UniProtKB/TrEMBL annotation:
Entry protein name: BIG2 domain-containing protein
Residue ranges of coiled coil: none
The keyword Aminoacyl-tRNA synthetase is assigned to this record: no
SMART domains reported for this sequence: BID_2 (SM00635)
Keyword Signal belongs to the record: yes
Domain BIG2: 361-441, 447-527
InterPro entries in UniProt: Big_2, Invasin/intimin_cell_adhesion, Quino_amine_DH_bsu
Signal peptide as annotated in the record: 1-25
Source organism of this protein record: Paenibacillus hemerocallicola
Cross-referenced Gene3D superfamilies: 2.60.40.1080
Keywords tagged on the record: Signal
């Protein structure tokens, strides 16, 4: 079988995709499928500013937001968006109302709320945190005096049942500022505080704006330093393990499926940027695209990324290859759902549920060969095809790949196999919930193994038979394997081939003969007149 070279195949795929989707630039590769269907849409009554939506374990959703000054709004719906319960709670302290900035649904079915509250001086604002049960009743609250003008950014539950939040404090009189991460236990008691940055007004602005726990028990904090996006990676007790800056504004950071991190933000020329880093924050690749401005970033069900912009949502794979996009004006956040779909939050109080995309019932996945042969040190490409009904799509660049024995061979994210040591293993390709497998044979280096027909093309007339000869080269030795090889025909209505390699013409046309033996493969054309 003729196989495209790696550079040639990449050029072909990129040109094809660019032609299909001219609205995306060459930075963010695009292989966009059909936009998902809208399952339902709902608008929350009143003057609610939605802050977040989370999916519940029963498949339903809880929406959280801020109402009038001092009010936090909570509701729950079923999986179809039908409201089951809602409540508005007024939060105040000493007659002063709380400005709600962050809300999260907690594992016990309740909520954690964070915001600011006017302090003893009219220009000062302290921090207010309240833990609520599932009915919106306050279980405990904490008021922390900032001593200056405080801005509360985000609070999140931690794996130990406690909480962590990030804030920014500035003193207009003294001319200083600081930004910190604060860890609370399950009862709201402060466990530690870590100052992440600060200075006088002549210093570059520094602010931590988001926080989430990482798989190693530490924390990923995102924010900015001057005009750059900043990530602080904290250990479990708040120590700064590393801090890196990235050339985007208004960024959003999430842990990636491979242990690194992904960042979405706005570049110097107003373009959208997605950056992938390793687990130490070092940049691995950057992709750009035009269309709106990034407002959120979430990890998708399959390890890809769901990027929200103020003009809609974009779903990509783990390499930022576009899978689909959906237009939605005034989008403030896009949230990935368990079915592979998304919830879109449109400012100020509209929620849109997009359906997950699943494979058609008759869909299947296939590789371009049932087995691959190469020598140690050699790299070959593969082609992965998604077959559905009468159609098929090349999904090589969006598939996921694995090797059963990584000591024998490796495979990269584009499906390229590299032989490492002699042996046999299995390649598995996955896409859209489907799998395809192929055997991989690695031979000793130094001599190229392979097999071939005795001609690259055969010609017969209808009804005529013709012998073929197939030879195999292994460890420098050539053997005739015509009787041991297995055969197949690209179009069996044109010609047949028996187990001894004899072909017989059936009707006019041209097709391809394929012979396989011990993991090796040979092809030739057959012409019938």
């Amino acid at each position: 079988m003729f196989k495209l070279g790696r550079w040639t195949k990449c050029l072909f795929v990129c040109v094809l995709l660019f032609g299909l989707l001219p609205s995306w630039n060459a930075g963010l590769a695009a292989a966009e499928g059909q936009a998902p269907d809208m399952e339902w849409e709902r608008q929350i009554e009143g003057t609610v500013r939605l802050i977040d939506v989370q999916q519940l374990r029963n498949g339903g959703y809880t929406s959280m937001g801020a109402g009038k000054e001092g009010e936090v709004y909570l509701d729950r719906t079923d999986a179809q968006g039908n409201k089951q319960w809602s409540k508005t709670v007024t939060l105040s302290e000493n007659g002063k109302n709380v400005t709600v900035e962050s809300v999260q649904h907690t594992r016990d079915g309740g909520y954690i709320v964070g915001g600011t509250i006017p302090s003893y001086h009219w220009r000062y604002r302290g921090y207010y945190i309240a833990k609520m049960d599932g009915n919106g009743e306050i279980q405990w609250k904490v008021v922390d005096d900032s001593g200056a003008y405080g801005t509360f950014h985000m609070i999140r539950e931690t794996n130990d049942g406690g909480f962590i939040y990030v804030e920014f404090t500035e003193s207009l009189n003294a001319g200083f500022f600081s930004t910190t991460a604060v860890k609370l236990d399950a009862s709201g008691k402060k466990e530690w505080t870590k100052v992440l940055g600060g200075g006088r007004w002549v210093s570059p602005d520094v602010a931590a704006k988001s926080v989430r726990q990482t798989a190693d028990g530490g924390y990923l904090v995102g924010g900015y330093k001057g005009d750059s996006f900043s990530i602080w990676k904290l250990g479990a007790t708040g120590e700064i393990e590393w801090n890196q800056l990235y050339p985007v504004r208004g960024g959003y950071a999430v842990p990636a499926s491979d242990g690194g991190y992904a960042i979405a933000g706005i570049g110097a020329n107003g373009e959208n940027v997605i950056i992938k880093t390793d687990n130490s924050g070092a940049m691995q690749w950057t992709k750009t695209w035009n269309g709106g401005q990034a407002v959120s970033l979430d990890i998708a069900k399959d390890g890809g990324y769901l990027i929200g912009t103020n003009q809609g949502a974009v779903m990509t794979d783990s390499n930022a290859l576009t899978l689909w996009s959906y237009s939605a004006t005034d989008l403030s956040k896009a949230i990935s759902t368990a079915d592979g779909g998304a919830v879109l939050v449109r400012s100020p109080n509209t929620i849109v549920k997009l359906a997950g995309q699943s494979a058609p019932p008759d869909a299947r996945l296939k590789l371009d060969s049932m087995d691959y042969s190469l020598v140690a040190g050699q790299t070959i490409d593969t082609v992965l095809t998604f077959v559905y009904g009468n159609g098929q799509t090349n999904v090589t660049r969006v598939g996921a790949y694995s090797i059963a024995d990584p000591a024998i061979a490796s495979v990269d994210t584009s499906g390229n196999i590299t032989g490492l040591m002699p042996g046999q293993t299995v390649l598995t390709a996955t896409y859209n919930g489907l799998q395809a497998k192929a055997d991989v044979y690695i031979y000793s280096g130094g001599t190229q193994n392979g097999m071939k027909f005795d001609s690259s093309a055969y010609s017969v007339i209808v009804g005529q038979s013709l012998d073929t000869v197939v030879s195999a080269v292994y460890a420098g030795q050539t053997s005739i394997v015509t009787g041991q090889a297995a055969y197949s025909i690209g179009d069996p209505s044109v010609v047949t081939i028996d187990s001894t390699g004899v072909i017989t013409g059936l009707k006019r046309g041209v097709t391809v003969l394929t012979a396989t033996y011990n993991g090796m493969k040979a092809t030739a054309e057959a012409y019938v007149y």
